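Archive entry: two folds, one per protein. Generate the first.
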Amino acid sequence: MSSTPQQRRGNTRQRIQDVALELFAEQGYEKTSLREIAEKLEVTKAALYYHFKTKEDILISVFEDLTRPIDELISWARDQPRSMETKQGIIRRYHSALIHASPLFRFMQENQATVRELSIGETFKERMVALIKLIQEPDFSMTDRVRCISALFTMHAGMFFMQNVEGDPEEKQAAVLEVAIDLVTQAHHGAAGK
């Protein structure tokens, strides 16, 4: 789906993104300067400017790169039959995309005010609305609609809050995925039982 941070390190542009995102998460977006990013990379500001003119340019490029699998998922899902299996597939693929984009989601959690101010906040909201429409049906009850929305946000919460729960990281990720799939499956069965 997406490259891991270790795979991304060879490319200068990607190294800039990784370091900037790390500093944004540690210090906050507003408190991080281009100079600090250049210093951490051990490059000149001119070298940094060759790739990015502003912090917002860096953040937007990170967002575009790390959310590309979500865009691909939405595109794929629109061409699939609206079955329970497809909805479960959407949940599985979204879970994988979240894992690969975890540094971005950590940044978004830590810098919510900045995300709201920048264009990335609106485009992320659009992606969430598209995914919700793909896993629920117009005739779902309000309870089943809430289940579908909760399935996505269960995975978001799992990205952040499961870090504080003791246990094997893979087992925790599998549990989060299982709960999200259960919610979508319940919604589908609830609608089918009408």
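Generate the second and append.
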Amino acid sequence: MSGGTAVLHIAADHPAFAGHFPGRPIVPGVVLLDEALRAIAAAEGLSATAWKLGSAKFVRPVGPGEPLLLRWQAPGAGGAIAFAIETAGQPVASGSLSPQGSGVPPA
């Protein structure tokens, strides 16, 4: 595993926007985390279900259609992967994913 970058796109018609929030839709944090996990797992050839959230911090709301850049680092101690999401050079969220069991999960 090497770390990398990916562009995330949350479609303006995503069903989560219906309840978050009328009049000023924002992407729920769980949707950001799910998209980040899927992108990292796909890029690194890993199972998306073998990870747990180690930590997460949300610092800016994201609206429908905002371009998002995901960056992650190769696994550190204990196999954890640090990640960060930004839009237009501004931080949106950051956190870490840890393997469910010991060591790095198989592909």
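Annotation attached to the second fold: The beta strands are 3-8, 51-58, 68-73, 81-87, 90-99. Residues 3-99 form a domain with the Thiol Ester Dehydrase; Chain A fold (CATH 3.10.129.10).
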